[in-house]
Write a sequence for this structure.
């Protein structure tokens, strides 16, 4: 990987990774354990996607309430 360690760390922080995950990722990369580093990234992606889905459900609840209120007029 040609990115600097600082830019990788910043990217991981921007992606919501905690310090434990960042440390584990950097260790895997330094040890040449690319499959393990990819697993860590996929896990973080999954966590973020789960959060998006939870927020979408909240939006759906609000949309339904708005629909019911408008229909009642």
């Amino acid at each position: 990987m040609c990115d600097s360690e600082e830019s990788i760390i910043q990217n991981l922080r921007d992606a919501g990774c905690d310090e434990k995950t960042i440390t584990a990722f950097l260790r895997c990369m330094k040890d040449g354990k690319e499959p393990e580093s990819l697993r860590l990234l996929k896990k973080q992606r999954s966590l973020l996607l789960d959060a998006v889905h939870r927020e979408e459900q909240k939006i759906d609840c609000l949309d339904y309430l708005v629909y019911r209120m408008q229909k009642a007029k």
